[in-house]
């Protein structure tokens, strides 16, 4: 990254900090019990704005060599994280202010508008801003652009997933950033092979499919969560609970993931019986889902999208497997760990297995922090391309587990109105039979 490029990035971030400070400070004029916290946030942002201004001047004065370019063509992760924090805060304040203006409160806006966050959220934001200020303060002691980038690149960032049930995982703060709203979907939709509402809908349904598996208590699962290069093939015959296991695997991975980890579940049923029209469709969906989690990763994909301009547009708008793999490995540098779950439980034929095998082989050298899990039918045809690249797990549940799952499903469907019995006693008898077995009826 050139010194001038870094200085421009810092100066733009300082402008965001100034605007956010002005919006935040206006909230202290309202009659609120949170005045002290709001003022503390405003002061913290003002301190950051001053530090960013000094840092931008420092960057512009250090080593004015335009030929000196790093292989990372995006802002350092701490600056990206700081940008996201300020943009999220400013966007929330603007939305609250706009709603008040729409209600006819123009003359008494400051008196009527309330701080839109809880005390706990404000405290967490203060802690986060303090960490950013500490990092930026360390950067001011840099003697060269190399030193400055080294200080600012110590940490890596990923958007926080706030929904504990991971239903809203696709809606990250990065997506809601007003500065990127118009351009981001044009880039993502070039590669993403799924509609937003379909993705959320299927995750909402999968979270209700509870299942028990000893895999989640094994050391292998902890290795999957904490170590790169851990790859799995999960198989079960028809009716063996693959769909329920996929939901549980995604849910447990999101819930127990480590810090600075991106989780990407890919579901086979979103485009019918086979989710991907081509191998580039599969890989394009993976990179698009990763890009939406981090601004640096998104810039890598946007640059590749621009490189495709003017080229023949078939498959994924002219994208190639080789090009998408390069993009994927570049994106992985913005995270400590990349976890991809490929659900092929409803695919009719294993056309994607050679592609998955290629990804696993290449990742050993290109992205050691990359891990992949595949859920598929127990077919010999998929074991040949994967071979020893993956650890195989048979997830076929016991009869007792299947009966308990069926009883839970009956209860859930009756509760939601999807299943009806003429008499309540029939429902109770069906659930009891599934729970304790037919001999106890």
What are the key terms here?
7% strand; 3 domains; 441 residues; Rossmann fold; alpha/beta; globular; five-stranded parallel sheet
Give the CATH topology of the largest domain: Rossmann fold
Number of domains: 3
SSE arrangement, N to C: HHHHHHHHHHEHEHHHEHEHEHH
* Discrete helix count: 18
User: Radius of gyration, rounded?
Assistant: 25 Å
The portion of residues assigned to helices is 55-70%
Broad shape: globular
Mean pLDDT comes to 73
Name of the CATH class of the largest domain: Alpha Beta
Give the spatial strand order of the biggest sheet: 2-3-4-1-5
Termini distance?
72 Å
Number of strands: 5
- Strand pairing plus helix content: what structural class? alpha/beta
How does the major sheet shape up?
A: 5 strands, parallel
Structure characterization notes:
- There is one protein chain.
- The chain is an alpha/beta fold and 441 residues long.
- It has three domains: 3-152, no CATH class; 173-397, P-loop containing nucleotide triphosphate hydrolases (Rossmann fold), CATH 3.40.50; 400-440, no CATH class.
- 56% of the residues lie in helices and 7% in strands.
- It has helices spanning 3-26, 35-61, 77-102, 109-112, 119-139, 145-152, 173-176, 181-191, 196-206, 219-226, 242-256, 279-291, 295-307, 321-332, 353-366, 380-386, 399-416, 424-436, and strands at residues 231-236, 261-267, 337-343, 370-377, 391-394.
- Strands 2-3-4-1-5 form a five-stranded parallel β-sheet, sandwiched between helices.
- Helix 12 runs parallel beside helix 14 (321-332).
- The longest helix has 27 residues, at 35-61.
- It is globular and about 70 Å long.
- The termini are far apart.
- It comes from Glomerella acutata.
- This is Fungal N-terminal domain-containing protein.
């Amino acid at each position: 990254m050139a010194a001038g490029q870094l200085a421009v990035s810092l100066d733009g971030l300082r402008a965001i900090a100034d605007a956010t400070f002005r919006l935040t400070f206006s909230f202290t004029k309202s009659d609120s019990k949170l005045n002290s916290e709001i003022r503390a946030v405003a002061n913290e942002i003002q301190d950051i704005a001053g530090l960013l201004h000094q840092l931008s001047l420092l960057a512009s004065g250090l080593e004015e060599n335009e030929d000196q370019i790093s292989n990372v063509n995006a802002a350092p992760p701490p600056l990206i994280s700081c940008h996201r924090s300020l943009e999220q805060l400013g966007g929330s304040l603007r939305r609250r202010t706009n709603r008040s203006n729409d209600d006819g409160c123009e003359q008494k806006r400051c008196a009527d508008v309330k701080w839109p966050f809880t005390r706990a959220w404000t405290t967490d934001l203060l802690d986060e801003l303090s960490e950013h200020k500490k990092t930026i303060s360390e950067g001011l002691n840099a003697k060269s652009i190399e030193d400055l980038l080294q200080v600012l690149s110590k940490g890596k960032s990923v958007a926080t997933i706030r929904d504990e049930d991971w239903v809203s995982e696709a809606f990250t703060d990065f997506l809601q950033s007003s500065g990127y709203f118009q351009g981001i979907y044009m880039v993502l939709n070039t590669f993403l092979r799924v509609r937003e509402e379909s993705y959320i809908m299927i995750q909402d349904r999968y979270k209700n499919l509870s299942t028990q598996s000893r895999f989640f208590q094994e050391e292998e699962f902890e290795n999957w969560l904490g170590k790169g290069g851990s790859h799995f093939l999960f198989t079960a015959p028809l009716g063996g609970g693959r769909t329920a296991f996929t939901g549980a695997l995604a849910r447990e991975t999101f819930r127990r993931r480590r810090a600075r980890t991106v989780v990407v579940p890919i579901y086979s049923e979103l485009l019918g019986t086979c989710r991907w029209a081509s191998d580039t469709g599969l890989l394009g969906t993976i990179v698009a889902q990763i890009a939406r989690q981090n601004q640096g990763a998104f810039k890598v994909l946007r640059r590749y999208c621009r490189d495709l301009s003017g080229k023949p547009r078939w498959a994924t708008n002219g994208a190639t497997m080789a090009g998408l793999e390069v993009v994927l490995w570049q994106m992985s540098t913005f995270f400590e760990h990349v976890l991809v779950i490929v659900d092929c439980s409803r695919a009719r034929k294993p056309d994607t297995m050679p592609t998955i095998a290629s990804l696993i082989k290449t990742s050993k050298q290109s992205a050691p922090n990359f891990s992949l899990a595949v859920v598929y039918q127990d077919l010999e045809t998929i074991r040949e391309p994967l071979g020893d690249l993956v650890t195989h797990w048979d997830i076929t549940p016991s009869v007792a587990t299947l009966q308990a799952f069926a009883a839970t499903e009956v209860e859930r469907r009756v509760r939601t109105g999807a299943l009806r019995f003429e008499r309540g006693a029939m429902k109770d008898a069906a659930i009891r039979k599934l729970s304790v077995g037919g001999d106890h009826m």
